[in-house]
Amino acid sequence: MLNFFLRRLGGAIPTLFIIIAISFFMIRLAPGGPFARERQVPPEVLAALNRQYHLDEPLWQQFLRYIGDLLQGDFGPSFKYKDFRVTDLILQGFPTSLQLGLLAISLALIIGLSLGIWAALRQNTIVDYTTMGVSMLGIAVPNFVVAPVLTLIFGLMLGWLPVGGWGHPANYVLPVIALCLSQIASIARLMRASMIEVLRSNYVRTAHAKGLPERIVLRRHAIRAALLPVVSFLGPAIANIITGSVVIEQIFSIPGIGRYFVQASLNRDYTMVMGVTVFYGALIIFCNLLADLAYGLLDPKVRYD
Amino acid sequence: MAAVLEVTGLKTSFATQEGAVKAVGGVDFSINKGETLGVVGESGSGKSQIFMSIMGLLARNGSATGSVKFQGEEILGLDVQALNRVRGAKMAMIFQDPMTSLNPYLSVRRQMTEVLIQHKGLSEDQAAKQSAEMLEKVQIPEAKRRLNMYPHEFSGGMRQRVMIAMALLCGPELLIADEPTTALDVTVQAQILEVLVGLQRDFGMAIALITHDLGVIARMADRVMVMYAGNIVEKGSVRDLFKDPQHPYTQGLLESMPRLDETEETRLMTIGGQPPNLQNLPSGCSFRDRCRYAFERCPVETPLLTPFAEGRSKACHLPSL
Description:
The complex is a heterodimer.
Chain A: H1 2-29, H2 43-52, H3 59-71, H4 86-121, H5 126-140, H6 143-157, H7 169-199, H8 202-209, H9 214-251, H10 257-267, H11 270-298
Helix pairs in contact in A: 1-11, 4-5, 4-7, 4-9, 5-7, 6-7, 6-9, 7-9, 8-9, 9-10, 9-11, 10-11
Chain B: E1 3-16, E2 19-32, E3 36-40, H1 47-55, E4 62-70, E5 73-74, H2 80-83, E6 91-94, H3 98-101, H4 108-120, H5 124-137, H6 143-147, H7 156-168, E7 174-178, H8 186-203, E8 206-211, H9 214-220, E9 223-228, E10 231-237, H10 238-243, H11 248-255, H12 297-300, E11 306-309, E12 312-314
Parallel strand pairs in B: 3-8, 3-9, 6-7, 7-8
Antiparallel strand pairs in B: 1-2, 1-4, 4-5, 9-10, 10-12, 11-12
Helix pairs in contact in B: 4-5, 5-7, 7-8
């Protein structure tokens, strides 16, 4: 198990390197630069700035320097937030983003799984059709549409909830809902399909033949087995929540990492964009690893060797 | 002799978009204490669905009517809770495919002990001890160690032994074995049958053995009932039925068994044609289209299962073959 864990971590290094390389060169391909202004900056000033941030060096040298710093855990200085290291900004915003993400994924799991199981048990009834119809909508509508609509209805028209900010529990409601709605929908559909298949399986028939009460058949035999596809979906789902939170944090002015990312991209804050990309990349790889480990706990056929 | 199971007028049908499929068309039979009843028929003859109805395991679109008395008590149409006191405890069932009939995500220990905990109220430890003893009785080597393993660590034959052990945990009066050896290779088949015979001797339970393998019937059964298109066409002791089949379908089945004492030139007999569509049964006798003896009466009048000799009955208009 430990061996598997270490091997997977080792396997993540090339993936991370490719993420770093691609985003490093792509952000520099984008027109403009961190110090481009509408007002003409004197060439001497620009040259001095470029020298200070080593932007006058050849690209490959900048890349090597960046990798070197990264190996020491340093994401470099932010080009926009003067006197701040990117590492500090990320660590400062991460707790907020983590809170938002965890709330969203937990809610998505609780509601998604319950709806999926319910629909499967009432297959081809109005419950099933309604749940699946609504969840189709949930998957189809992107969160950057859901968020403003929710804000409009519950924030402005009804005035029940704040439209932005962070800190008070009421602030959490709209962003968490906007973030997890499509995940609820995906998980519900996945769980329903998986559950229907398992309920038809021979081993559930065996469980009934053994005279076990319905709740044991469901809990121990059916739901447990039906969870497996959902667990493998958790990796991508977490990735979706994380990338989704970039948009959601911006819309609701939540002081997490996501908001930095959007502003940094617009400002061509190279180090900040890189920092958030690499951090999120590593986080997604790590969450996928956790999902794989959870899968192994549920399925005895999985061996870590 | 006292009957463990008494079935009268059992009908099973499945609702489909194209209309009702009559899987079982009204059957009467009984199984006595300690005896083995062989149930023979080809795929779709309704032989399995009879026992799925009895066990309350029909698919959601299926429904059964009639009467099923287990040890004198009506069990057809019982609610699940009441039925659960019988199935798994006094009446157990094993299935055709041991590869998929055990839950792949739970240890054999969990799957066995839950039966004893449910029906006998044993503690986990007591249940584990009895489960290991039962695995020994079905001749699984190193039963104590094997108990903690998962189904995928067992071969097909071993899994079927686990299924049998699981079914017998509570000492049932009736074991329903639905094609227990069909998915296994021939040598393993023989071993499993041997295990069943030995356990029946020890436990004295009745067995309903559902199969399309007449060889298995000849070896195991005391009495046989032959199913065709959802109905019983012939019933009798295994000796009478094999020596002197009196229904053209039974005769056809026996003739289409390969024999070792025949010369190589002899062609294997077959029954021509196909079984009828259960949604749209023909008038009269459902076997008439494939019957070499069919005459004017057959399409007009449905033959009923009628006794014609001591302990024997058939559903055929012909007085004798």
